[in-house]
Amino acid sequence: MTHKYLIVLYSSLSIAILFIIEQILSFEYLYKTIAKVIIFFLVLFIFHYITKSKTTYFATRRIDTKRLKISVSLGIGASLILIGTYFVLKDHIDFAQISENLAQKNITGDTFLFISIYIIFGNSFLEEIFFRGFIFKNLQQKHRLFAYIYSSFLFAIYHTAIFLTWFNIGLFLLALIGLFTIGLVFNWLNENSSNIYNSWLVHIIADIGIIIIALIAVF
Fold first, then answer.
1. Cβ atoms < 10 Å from Cβ of 98
2. How many domains does the chain have?
3. Which residue in 88, 116, 159, 186 has its CB near the most CB atoms, within 10 A?
4. How far apart are CA 110 and CA 117, in angstroms?
5. What is the DSSP string of 115-149?
6. CAAX prenyl protease 2/Lysostaphin resistance protein A-like domain: which residues (predicted)?
7. Model confidence over 151-194: pLDDT tens digits?
8. Shortest CA distance to 122 belongs to which of 190, 204, 66, 51?
């Protein structure tokens, strides 16, 4: 089995399992996070063990400072767009449903600070390792177009497990398109580097915007 098919098999199975954990089993956030960490790193270990390939996602060489500056600008822009979109569309969002869903996963005012810190720095890094490192970086040399489309598509689908019941169909599709586009941009930022730090920086800043929205709207 080629690298391409191994990546597609392992990544699609991982996202399917996480969808079941989120939407059917309804794990609390802590247990869902533990499961995600185990699944993502187990997949990486198995893939690199089978293929005898090296992991370069964390390499600090060839860090492009110009792209890091672009990442900061894009991150700030993304945060502002997210916050602006919230104010435009807030009357069409069911915040009662969101609050209830979060409470079921033990995301409350008491736990929000710690979860926010994890989301901004830990979860964002985990997602970058998986979607931009494991999927995109391992596919881009031989399957560049497929790498762009598949990793961005899976990135968008992965997030639907979180907000599946939050929005109406129009907002759901808008969010899906937005996430796919963000995935494409994240891939572009990392294409000529040997690591995932460019997209991770944007991800961090964008997640800060999401946390600000949560503070305003829910907590």
1. 17
2. 1
3. 186
4. 13
5. HHHIIIIIIHHHHIIIIIIIIIIHHTTT-HHHHHH
6. 112-208
7. 999 999 999 888 877 888 988 999 999 999 999 999 999 988 87
8. 204
The residue written with tokens 């893939």 in the block is: 47
Round to whole Å and give the CA distance between 63 and 74: 17
Angle at 109 between CA 17 and CA 167, to 5 degrees: 50
| CA separation, residue 127 to residues 37, 60, 72, 123 (Å) | 10, 18, 18, 6
Q: Put residue 100 in one of left, alpha, beta given phi > 0 → left and psi -120 to 50 → alpha.
A: alpha
Q: What is the chain's mean pLDDT, rounded?
A: 91
The pLDDT of residue 133 is above 90? yes
CA torsion angle for 136, 200, 43, 182 (degrees, to 10)? Answer: -50
Structural domain including 201 reads 3-217
pLDDT digits (tens, 9 = 90+) for 25-71: 989 999 999 999 999 999 999 999 999 887 777 666 667 777 788 99
Q: Are the C-beta atoms of residues 22 and 161 closer than 8 Å to each other? A: yes
Tens-digit pLDDT profile for residues 79-118: 999 999 999 998 888 888 888 888 888 888 889 999 999 9
**Count of Cβ atoms closer than 10 Å to residue 139 Cβ:** 22
